Task: structure prediction
Amino acid sequence: MMVGMNREGSIGRVEFMSNFKSVVERLRALENDRRNLLLEIEELKKMADSKAKALESEVGMLREEVKSLRVLLGAEEEPAVDEEQQQKKKPRK
Result:
């Protein structure tokens, strides 16, 4: 009986070590994936920030162009209510 128990114990230990090794490998792979995803997120955030800054600049230039065209057309005053304010005043359903 002692021999049988010893053999079963060895098989159990081999199985445990195999499962343990698989878990460790899985953890390493997941940590690597996590690290790569965090790096990608940071790059995407930088790209989004850059794009937002470019759009802000473009919007500023367009506003200046509108002002210049109004001056050229003799409509120096800006309208009292712009489109954004009109949207806010519309009743919501």
